Amino acid sequence: METTDFLEHIDLPRSLVEDIATHLSEAIFEGKLHPGQPIIETELQRLLGVSRAPLREALLKLEGQGLVKMVPRRGAFVRAITPRWISEIFTVRAWLEGLAARLTAEKVDLSCCERMEEILADMARLAQQKRFKEYFYRHWDFHRVFIEGSGNVELGERIAAMRRESLWLSYSVIYFEHNHQASQKTHRRIIDLFRKGRPEEVELVVRSHILEAIDKYVQFVKETYPGMSDIG
Length: 232
Known about the structure:
Layout: H1 16-29, E1 38-39, H2 41-48, H3 52-64, E2 68-71, E3 75-78, H4 83-107, H5 110-128, H6 132-149, H7 153-166, H8 169-196, H9 199-211, H10 214-224
Protein backbone atom coordinates (compact mmCIF):
# COMPACT_ATOMS: atom_id res chain seq x y z
CA MET A 1 0.00 0.00 0.00
CA GLU A 2 1.24 3.49 -0.83
CA THR A 3 1.76 5.81 2.12
CA THR A 4 -0.93 8.22 0.92
CA ASP A 5 -3.65 5.78 -0.19
CA PHE A 6 -5.68 6.26 2.99
CA LEU A 7 -5.68 10.07 2.69
CA GLU A 8 -7.45 10.36 -0.64
CA HIS A 9 -10.64 11.96 0.68
CA ILE A 10 -9.65 13.91 3.80
CA ASP A 11 -10.99 17.42 4.32
CA LEU A 12 -8.76 19.26 6.76
CA PRO A 13 -10.64 21.09 9.53
CA ARG A 14 -9.35 23.83 11.84
CA SER A 15 -5.98 22.64 13.07
CA LEU A 16 -3.68 21.29 10.39
CA VAL A 17 -1.16 19.85 12.82
CA GLU A 18 -3.75 18.07 14.97
CA ASP A 19 -5.66 16.82 11.96
CA ILE A 20 -2.62 15.41 10.19
CA ALA A 21 -1.41 13.77 13.39
CA THR A 22 -4.85 12.26 14.06
CA HIS A 23 -5.24 10.77 10.59
CA LEU A 24 -1.72 9.37 10.54
CA SER A 25 -2.08 7.84 14.00
CA GLU A 26 -5.41 6.24 13.04
CA ALA A 27 -3.82 4.79 9.92
CA ILE A 28 -1.02 3.31 12.03
CA PHE A 29 -3.35 1.87 14.67
CA GLU A 30 -5.59 0.29 12.05
CA GLY A 31 -2.67 -1.25 10.15
CA LYS A 32 -3.04 0.90 7.03
CA LEU A 33 0.52 2.05 7.61
CA HIS A 34 2.81 -0.79 8.59
CA PRO A 35 5.72 -0.95 11.06
CA GLY A 36 8.89 0.31 9.40
CA GLN A 37 7.04 1.81 6.43
CA PRO A 38 8.45 5.15 5.20
CA ILE A 39 6.19 8.20 5.37
CA ILE A 40 6.80 10.17 2.20
CA GLU A 41 6.55 13.81 3.28
CA THR A 42 6.53 15.27 -0.23
CA GLU A 43 3.57 13.10 -1.22
CA LEU A 44 1.64 14.12 1.88
CA GLN A 45 2.39 17.80 1.26
CA ARG A 46 1.08 17.53 -2.27
CA LEU A 47 -2.00 15.50 -1.38
CA LEU A 48 -3.00 17.65 1.58
CA GLY A 49 -1.98 20.96 0.09
CA VAL A 50 0.05 21.93 3.14
CA SER A 51 3.52 23.27 3.67
CA ARG A 52 6.35 21.28 5.21
CA ALA A 53 6.11 23.05 8.60
CA PRO A 54 2.72 21.72 9.87
CA LEU A 55 3.45 18.27 8.46
CA ARG A 56 6.82 18.11 10.17
CA GLU A 57 5.26 19.33 13.43
CA ALA A 58 2.61 16.59 13.20
CA LEU A 59 5.30 13.96 12.62
CA LEU A 60 7.28 15.21 15.61
CA LYS A 61 4.10 14.98 17.68
CA LEU A 62 3.68 11.36 16.62
CA GLU A 63 7.33 10.67 17.37
CA GLY A 64 6.70 11.91 20.90
CA GLN A 65 3.84 9.41 21.15
CA GLY A 66 6.09 6.56 20.02
CA LEU A 67 4.30 6.01 16.71
CA VAL A 68 6.84 7.50 14.31
CA LYS A 69 10.62 7.49 14.18
CA MET A 70 12.47 10.41 12.60
CA VAL A 71 15.81 9.35 11.12
CA PRO A 72 18.30 12.10 10.15
CA ARG A 73 18.87 12.34 6.39
CA ARG A 74 16.44 9.47 5.79
CA GLY A 75 13.05 10.85 6.82
CA ALA A 76 10.10 9.61 8.86
CA PHE A 77 9.11 5.99 9.36
CA VAL A 78 6.32 4.20 11.16
CA ARG A 79 7.84 2.94 14.39
CA ALA A 80 9.01 -0.65 14.05
CA ILE A 81 7.51 -3.14 16.48
CA THR A 82 9.92 -5.75 17.79
CA PRO A 83 9.44 -8.60 20.27
CA ARG A 84 11.77 -6.88 22.70
CA TRP A 85 9.85 -3.60 22.49
CA ILE A 86 6.51 -5.36 23.04
CA SER A 87 7.88 -7.17 26.07
CA GLU A 88 9.35 -4.03 27.61
CA ILE A 89 6.28 -1.86 27.00
CA PHE A 90 3.82 -4.46 28.26
CA THR A 91 5.91 -5.21 31.34
CA VAL A 92 6.03 -1.57 32.45
CA ARG A 93 2.36 -1.07 31.60
CA ALA A 94 1.40 -4.14 33.63
CA TRP A 95 2.96 -2.73 36.79
CA LEU A 96 1.53 0.75 36.27
CA GLU A 97 -2.03 -0.47 35.57
CA GLY A 98 -1.79 -2.86 38.49
CA LEU A 99 -0.90 0.09 40.70
CA ALA A 100 -3.83 2.10 39.33
CA ALA A 101 -6.18 -0.78 40.09
CA ARG A 102 -4.85 -1.05 43.63
CA LEU A 103 -5.27 2.68 44.29
CA THR A 104 -8.86 2.54 43.03
CA ALA A 105 -9.68 -0.57 45.06
CA GLU A 106 -8.42 1.12 48.23
CA LYS A 107 -11.15 3.75 47.81
CA VAL A 108 -13.93 1.14 47.72
CA ASP A 109 -15.92 3.12 45.15
CA LEU A 110 -18.63 0.72 43.98
CA SER A 111 -19.73 3.11 41.22
CA CYS A 112 -16.60 2.02 39.35
CA CYS A 113 -17.82 -1.56 39.57
CA GLU A 114 -21.16 -0.62 38.04
CA ARG A 115 -19.46 1.05 35.10
CA MET A 116 -17.18 -1.93 34.59
CA GLU A 117 -20.19 -4.28 34.73
CA GLU A 118 -21.83 -2.33 31.90
CA ILE A 119 -18.67 -2.41 29.81
CA LEU A 120 -18.12 -6.13 30.42
CA ALA A 121 -21.67 -6.82 29.22
CA ASP A 122 -20.89 -4.85 26.06
CA MET A 123 -17.67 -6.84 25.59
CA ALA A 124 -19.60 -10.12 25.82
CA ARG A 125 -22.18 -8.93 23.30
CA LEU A 126 -19.55 -7.67 20.85
CA ALA A 127 -17.56 -10.91 21.11
CA GLN A 128 -20.70 -12.93 20.38
CA GLN A 129 -21.28 -10.76 17.30
CA LYS A 130 -17.58 -11.07 16.33
CA ARG A 131 -17.17 -7.29 16.36
CA PHE A 132 -13.67 -7.37 17.77
CA LYS A 133 -12.61 -3.91 16.67
CA GLU A 134 -15.35 -2.48 18.88
CA TYR A 135 -14.48 -5.05 21.55
CA PHE A 136 -10.96 -3.60 21.58
CA TYR A 137 -12.25 -0.10 22.37
CA ARG A 138 -14.61 -1.31 25.09
CA HIS A 139 -11.78 -3.32 26.63
CA TRP A 140 -9.76 -0.10 26.85
CA ASP A 141 -12.81 1.64 28.37
CA PHE A 142 -12.89 -1.05 31.07
CA HIS A 143 -9.27 -0.42 32.05
CA ARG A 144 -9.77 3.33 31.86
CA VAL A 145 -12.44 3.14 34.58
CA PHE A 146 -10.01 1.98 37.26
CA ILE A 147 -7.08 3.98 35.84
CA GLU A 148 -9.04 7.22 36.16
CA GLY A 149 -10.57 5.99 39.41
CA SER A 150 -7.11 6.00 40.98
CA GLY A 151 -7.23 9.79 41.02
CA ASN A 152 -3.54 9.92 40.06
CA VAL A 153 -3.36 12.13 36.96
CA GLU A 154 0.36 11.57 36.35
CA LEU A 155 -0.11 7.79 36.49
CA GLY A 156 -3.06 7.98 34.09
CA GLU A 157 -1.15 10.08 31.58
CA ARG A 158 1.81 7.70 31.59
CA ILE A 159 -0.40 4.67 31.09
CA ALA A 160 -2.27 6.38 28.24
CA ALA A 161 1.03 7.20 26.52
CA MET A 162 2.18 3.59 26.82
CA ARG A 163 -1.12 2.28 25.50
CA ARG A 164 -0.74 4.48 22.42
CA GLU A 165 2.58 2.78 21.84
CA SER A 166 1.67 -0.81 22.57
CA LEU A 167 -1.98 -1.45 21.72
CA TRP A 168 -1.92 -1.44 17.94
CA LEU A 169 -5.43 -2.08 16.75
CA SER A 170 -4.71 -4.63 14.01
CA TYR A 171 -2.81 -6.84 16.48
CA SER A 172 -5.33 -6.45 19.26
CA VAL A 173 -8.29 -7.41 17.08
CA ILE A 174 -6.61 -10.72 16.20
CA TYR A 175 -5.60 -11.24 19.83
CA PHE A 176 -9.15 -10.79 21.11
CA GLU A 177 -10.61 -13.01 18.40
CA HIS A 178 -8.62 -15.88 19.88
CA ASN A 179 -8.59 -14.94 23.54
CA HIS A 180 -11.85 -13.14 24.31
CA GLN A 181 -13.28 -15.89 26.52
CA ALA A 182 -10.27 -15.91 28.84
CA SER A 183 -10.20 -12.12 28.72
CA GLN A 184 -13.82 -11.85 29.85
CA LYS A 185 -13.26 -14.31 32.71
CA THR A 186 -10.31 -12.24 33.91
CA HIS A 187 -12.33 -9.03 33.78
CA ARG A 188 -15.16 -10.70 35.71
CA ARG A 189 -12.65 -11.64 38.39
CA ILE A 190 -11.29 -8.07 38.45
CA ILE A 191 -14.78 -6.70 39.14
CA ASP A 192 -15.37 -9.27 41.87
CA LEU A 193 -12.13 -8.33 43.61
CA PHE A 194 -13.04 -4.64 43.43
CA ARG A 195 -16.41 -5.41 45.04
CA LYS A 196 -14.74 -7.40 47.81
CA GLY A 197 -12.27 -4.58 48.47
CA ARG A 198 -9.08 -6.55 47.89
CA PRO A 199 -6.48 -4.05 46.60
CA GLU A 200 -3.47 -6.38 46.66
CA GLU A 201 -5.27 -9.16 44.80
CA VAL A 202 -6.76 -6.90 42.14
CA GLU A 203 -3.33 -5.37 41.55
CA LEU A 204 -1.86 -8.82 40.97
CA VAL A 205 -4.66 -9.96 38.65
CA VAL A 206 -4.49 -6.81 36.48
CA ARG A 207 -0.71 -7.09 36.27
CA SER A 208 -0.83 -10.79 35.35
CA HIS A 209 -3.57 -10.16 32.78
CA ILE A 210 -1.29 -7.82 30.83
CA LEU A 211 1.90 -9.86 31.27
CA GLU A 212 0.19 -13.02 30.01
CA ALA A 213 -0.58 -11.28 26.70
CA ILE A 214 3.08 -10.64 25.86
CA ASP A 215 3.90 -14.02 24.29
CA LYS A 216 0.72 -14.04 22.19
CA TYR A 217 1.37 -10.52 20.86
CA VAL A 218 4.98 -11.38 20.07
CA GLN A 219 3.94 -14.53 18.23
CA PHE A 220 1.37 -12.64 16.16
CA VAL A 221 3.89 -9.97 15.19
CA LYS A 222 6.45 -12.61 14.18
CA GLU A 223 3.89 -14.38 12.02
CA THR A 224 2.74 -11.14 10.41
CA TYR A 225 6.25 -9.79 9.81
CA PRO A 226 8.51 -12.87 9.57
CA GLY A 227 11.52 -10.79 8.49
CA MET A 228 11.31 -8.50 11.49
CA SER A 229 14.46 -8.27 13.58
CA ASP A 230 14.61 -7.68 17.32
CA ILE A 231 16.53 -4.44 16.86
CA GLY A 232 15.02 -0.96 16.65
